[in-house]
Amino acid sequence: MDYDVLAIIEGYAQGYFLMAEDDESLQWYSSRDRTIIPLDDRFRYPKSLQRVLNSDKFTVAINRDFKAVVTGCANRETTWISQELQNIYWTLYLNGWAYSFETWLGDELAGGILGIAIGGIFIGESMFYRIPNGSKVAMVKLVEKLRSQSFVLFDAQMMNPHLERFGAYCIADVEYQGLLKKALMRRCSLR
């Protein structure tokens, strides 16, 4: 199936995100409150994770196995990542918009974060792990990468307890739109 990549990117660039309903039909969503992962000193993580980071147990890669990350993110009892949305992510990946930020234990995929990068915004779509701490290490390393590349915004869309442990916070849509506009003016890269 062919997708209008530019129309999809335009939707994300306006602050919307795609999710599948129970019947698997895709819908665009927005939120009055948007969850942001801080890229400044408000970012934090559990102290126990520092030992894992210091051990260099995991290696980090970008797009080493994009499809496996999408599959891992969708592999849940209840998921909003339908097969059609997986196909859209693949199309966005092929066109240079979607990324998987991965952790590996040897040759085994430990965890990852799926997202879309537009200008200076990284839109985190989902994350998963197969090995304990795999997604947590991916989060820390992704934030380090976004900082090093001068990204303005890490949009996590909706709050959950896992994200709160990393210092995630909610902002009103009006503040989000201002940050989004600033982020879209940047030319950042995950490469």
Structure description:
This protein has 191 residues and is α+β, with helices and mostly antiparallel strands. It has one domain (5-184): 3-Layer(aba) Sandwich (Aminopeptidase). 37% of the residues lie in helices and 28% in strands. The chain has helices at 5-13, 47-55, 66-74, 83-94, 134-148, 161-164, 173-184; strands at residues 17-20, 26-29, 33-36, 59-62, 98-105, 108-118, 121-129, 153-157, 169-172. A hairpin with a 2-residue loop joins strand 5 (98-105) and strand 6. The mean pLDDT is 94.
Q: Based on DSSP secondary structure assignment, what is the total number of beta strands? A: 9
Q: Can you tell me the CATH superfamily?
A: Leucyl/phenylalanyl-tRNA-protein transferase, C-terminal domain
Could you state the order of secondary-structure elements as H and E? HEEEHEHHEEEHEHEH
Would you identify the CATH architecture? 3-Layer(aba) Sandwich
**Any low-confidence stretches, pLDDT <50, length ≥5?**
none
Characterize the biggest β-sheet: 7 strands, mixed
Structural class: alpha+beta
Helicity level: 25-40%
| Termini Cα gap | 28 Å
User: What is the total domain count?
Assistant: 1
Q: In angstroms, what is the radius of gyration? A: 16 Å
Strand content: 25-35%
* CATH domain class: Alpha Beta
Average pLDDT confidence is: 94
**Morphology:** globular
* Individual helix count: 7
Strand order of the largest sheet: 4-5-6-7-8-3-9
CATH fold title: Aminopeptidase
